[in-house]
Amino acid sequence: MAQPQLDAEEVVKAIAAETNTPPETVSKLYSDTLAQYQSDGRILDYMPLLAAKRVRETLRHPPSR
Predict the structure, then answer these.
(1) Please, which domain of life does this record's source organism belong to (predicted)?
(2) For residue range 9-49, what is the model confidence (pLDDT) as tens digits?
(3) Which residues, at least 6 apart from 28, have a Cβ–Cβ distance to it below 8 Å?
(4) Exposed, middle or buried by CB within 10 Å (0-12, 13-18, 19+), for 8?
């Protein structure tokens, strides 16, 4: 059974609302994360879902400086 495709715009809006982060910031982080996953991975089916999860984690728990 095929997985439903995630609409990147909807994902970005949802993450921006959940994390109180500007959509432009979320969009950039999401597209960068997705590109990294796609360049490293061979199975692309779950890449948008994994990228969204990583962006949420990054925005909720930013790395310490």
Answers:
(1) Bacteria
(2) 999 999 999 999 999 999 999 999 999 988 887 877 888 99
(3) none
(4) middle
